[in-house]
């Protein structure tokens, strides 16, 4: 099946986005819990589903959803045969660029709520003034603050390289320290990325952004607001060798580059229906296959491995009595809510969709052997006794083009943007003055 999880924004812009240190990454690096209530609420949903299925399957594998997309196209994987360390360095940058440039620019330009943001902006402003005085002195004395590369006169320092490498390796969970040869390879990859970012930024500055300073301040304020105190925010920055000035500089570059990408490429990108259809036909077998799956609800009368023979007997008798009620026409979901011992009872026994190999054998055999709307007899498993109702089926086959057309079109547009920017960066490199120190 087809997935759009892989980044379609070029690595040069992706690296920059990684270096702006989103609040989540800052919190992870510093070991600080940033406030993320919306994400927590979202994460709670699959947790409930997993808990519901725990009683009916082994290994807690995630359920395969009917008509979902889950695989990246080969077209996005060109050049995948890069050295392992280089790939590890670049992958976090790709992940950081999942949000389209348009959305990043929109988010940065959102008008803050007046009262709350005035306080937040003043807080950040005061914090900046206080910090920057110390930072200027500290950075000038930093042992890594030596030039390693100059791009049209702009200096990339060893500190820049080390910081980028540290963030990316941490995000990709690569064990450190690296072996000497791997370290050299990783540093070379990071320098290549930083060079490309600088060239793209220099080109992007040719486009004026009237409210750029305000956008930078707002974005920094948003990142600061994810932390409880100024000290936690500063500590998070320090953990990745960043200062408030660095944060402002990287944020500025992020906004400038994304504005450039949006205006020059994203807004003009287009993909025809014919192109989408061709992509679908060329990749149907590889990416658009749908496995056989069923959606089912169940009523569980629990009796696990610790249950005595007498307890299992009583559980079976209760299950048989409940089955008679279902057969007599009582509402299946209502009985499940009142009688099932599975956490799925709160959803009327609904377990969602699942494929073969996800449920315990006895449960799977019964579910896949039934028609939509059919109710099983009492099915015994190591969890107890189940009454299963199949509510939907998906036969193995290819996803319909109409169901994925919009996503394919969007993917192809982003792929074209990536190709355009990659081509631009390569052209800029040909005329740039790049000197190693």
From TrEMBL:
Q: Which GO terms describe its molecular function?
A: peptidyl-prolyl cis-trans isomerase activity
Which reaction is recorded as catalysed by this protein?
[protein]-peptidylproline (omega=180) = [protein]-peptidylproline (omega=0)
Q: Which domain of life is it from?
A: Bacteria
| Residue span, PpiC domain | 291-392
Q: Name one Pfam family in it.
A: Rotamase
The residue range of the signal peptide is 1-27
Q: Compositional bias of type Low complexity: which residue ranges? A: 33-45, 61-91
- Start and end residues of each stretch annotated as Disordered: 33-141
Q: What EC number(s) has UniProt assigned to this enzyme? A: 5.2.1.8
Q: State the UniProt keywords alphabetically.
A: Isomerase, Rotamase, Signal
Keyword Signal (UniProt):
yes
Q: Where is the composition biased (Basic and acidic residues)?
A: 92-133
Listed Basic residues bias regions: 46-60
PANTHER family the UniProt entry points to: FOLDASE PROTEIN PRSA, PEPTIDYLPROLYL ISOMERASE
Name of the protein in question: peptidylprolyl isomerase
Species name = Geomonas subterranea
């Amino acid at each position: 099946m087809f997935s759009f999880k892989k980044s379609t924004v070029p690595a040069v812009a992706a690296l920059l986005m990684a270096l702006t240190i989103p609040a989540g990454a800052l919190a992870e690096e510093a070991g600080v819990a940033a406030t993320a209530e919306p994400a927590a609420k979202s994460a709670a949903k699959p947790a409930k589903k997993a808990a519901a299925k725990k009683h009916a399957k082994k290994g807690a594998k995630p359920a395969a959803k009917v008509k979902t997309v889950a695989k990246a196209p080969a077209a996005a994987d060109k050049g995948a045969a890069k050295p392992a360390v280089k790939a590890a360095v670049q992958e976090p940058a790709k992940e950081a660029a999942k949000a389209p440039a348009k959305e990043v620019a929109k988010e940065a330009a959102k008008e803050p709520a007046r009262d709350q943001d005035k306080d937040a902006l003043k807080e950040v402003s005061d914090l900046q003034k206080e910090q920057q005085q110390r930072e200027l002195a500290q950075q000038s004395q930093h042992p890594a603050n030596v030039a390693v590369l100059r791009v049209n006169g702009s200096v990339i320092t060893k500190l820049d390289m080390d910081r980028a490498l540290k963030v990316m390796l941490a995000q990709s969970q690569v064990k450190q320290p690296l072996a000497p040869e791997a370290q050299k390879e990783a540093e070379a990859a990071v320098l290549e990325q930083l060079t490309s970012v600088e060239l793209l930024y220099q080109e992007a500055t040719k486009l004026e952004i009237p409210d750029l300073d305000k956008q930078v301040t707002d974005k920094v304020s948003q990142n600061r607001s994810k932390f409880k105190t100024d000290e936690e925010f500063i500590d998070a920055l320090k953990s990745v060798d960043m200062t408030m000035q660095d944060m402002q500089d990287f944020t500025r570059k992020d906004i400038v580059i994304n504005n450039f990408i949006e205006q020059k490429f994203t807004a003009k990108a287009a993909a025809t229906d014919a192109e989408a259809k061709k992509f679908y036909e060329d990749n149907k077998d590889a990416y658009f296959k749908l496995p056989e799956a069923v959606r089912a609800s169940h009523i569980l009368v629990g009796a696990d491995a610790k249950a005595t023979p007498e307890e299992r007997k009583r559980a079976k008798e209760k299950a048989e009595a409940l089955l008679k009620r279902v057969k007599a026409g009582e509402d299946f979901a209502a009985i499940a809510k009142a009688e099932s011992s599975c956490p799925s009872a709160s959803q009327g026994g609904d377990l969602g969709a699942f494929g073969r190999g996800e449920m315990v054998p006895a449960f799977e055999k019964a579910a896949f052997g039934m028609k939509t709307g059919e109710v099983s007899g009492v099915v015994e498993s190591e969890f107890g006794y189940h009454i299963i109702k199949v509510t939907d089926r998906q036969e193995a086959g290819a996803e319909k083009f109409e169901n994925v057309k919009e996503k394919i079109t969007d993917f192809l547009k982003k792929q074209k943007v990536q190709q355009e920017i990659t081509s631009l960066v390569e052209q800029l490199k040909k005329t740039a003055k790049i000197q190693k120190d």
